[in-house]
Specification:
The protein has about 325 residues and is of the alpha/beta class. It contains eight helices and nine strands.
């Protein structure tokens, strides 16, 4: 019996390695070939808790022209490695034999941004249940990964904030080592639920009330920090971010978060993506977009980023989901 279990374990590892690959699947560039880089960050709906088994087969595509470097929650075989975008790059459990691997918005984004004439890369860092709000008395995250708060207001930067910046630095270096000349083009962010939940659970902590200020300062800080890391002027870097879904006003201070997001979306070079018509059903849970809804969230991110960086596209990627 032990030998059989050991054999199954070996087979599972080999299958996962074949499916998920790693550096060996990345085509290396000619010297200093330009590659456009988009940064991805946030909590669980950016990580990708959406089940691949619920996604229509027509969307399950590989994108060899879109590279990925993920330093956050993901399949361990790909963590901190250069690979390319493909189905199943979401949350860390690589249960491929059971068909339950997760995926995030990177699939929909890749469907829009993938190009035969330019190289694209995503650098991603995200963890579920995470907040920007910082208070030493509050466990801000379900995963104990600290918070997204930077040094504004005299604070000591949280681990998530610092590790995101480290991932950006490491991802850019990995691209350079692969022969590319990376150019950061934009930042995509999906987060907010936990800040609302903190205040709902204990109104002493004003995480939802402070969200507009914290989100504004986070975006300003990311532009400044990444400018230094990438040696670019990113003071006007486009930031595309998603509205959290108003699924349960009885659970979190969702209205305050959405109002804050709308206000931040009115600031220069910030673009808020509406999500009210992308459904979250109880088929899996009440927190995460699933299947086609997650894919379309990524499409919306990609379309807005494409528009801000390259101009309006004549291609129709939306498959009829638009209003």
């Amino acid at each position: 019996m032990k030998k059989i279990k050991h054999l199954i374990c070996i087979i599972s590892i080999l299958v996962c390695t074949f499916i998920f690959g790693g550096n060996s699947n990345v085509s290396y560039a000619g010297e200093n070939e330009t590659i456009d880089v988009f940064l991805l960050a946030g909590q669980s709906n950016m990580v990708g808790f959406s089940r691949l088994s619920l996604l229509d087969d027509k969307y399950k595509k590989d994108y060899p022209n879109v590279l990925m470097y993920n330093g956050g929650d993901c399949n361990g075989l790909e963590k901190n490695k250069l690979t390319y975008v493909h189905p199943g790059q979401g949350t860390g459990s690589a249960m491929s034999l059971l068909g339950s691997e997760g995926f995030g918005p990177e699939l929909g984004m890749a469907s829009v941004l993938s190009s035969e004439t330019r190289k694209i890369a995503f650098i991603k860092f995200a963890y579920g249940g995470t907040a920007i709000f910082q208070n030493p008395e509050v466990n801000n995250t379900a995963t104990n990964k600290d918070n997204w708060h930077g040094s504004w207001d005299g604070a000591t930067p949280g681990n998530l904030y610092k590790n995101f910046l480290s991932t950006v630095r490491n991802g850019l270096n990995a691209l350079k080592e692969a022969g590319y000349s990376p150019v950061v083009r934009g930042f995509v962010y999906m987060q907010g639920e936990t800040d609302g939940e903190i205040q709902f659970n204990n109104d002493v902590y004003n995480a939802a009330d402070a969200y507009e200020h914290n989100l504004t300062e986070l975006f300003n800080a990311i532009r400044e920090e990444v400018s230094t890391i990438a040696n670019q002027d990113l003071s006007e870097m486009p930031i595309v971010f998603g509205e959290i879904f108003e699924y349960s006003k009885a659970v979190i201070e969702v209205r305050k978060i959405v109002e804050a997001q709308n206000n931040v979306g009115k600031l220069p070079n910030n673009y808020l993506i509406e999500t009210s018509d992308l459904l979250i059903t109880s088929k899996v849970d009440d927190w995460h977009w699933n299947g086609n809804w997650m894919y379309w969230l990524g499409v919306r991110f990609g379309e807005k980023m494409y528009e801000t960086v390259y101009g309006l596209s004549t291609n129709n990627y939306s498959d009829g989901y638009e209003k």
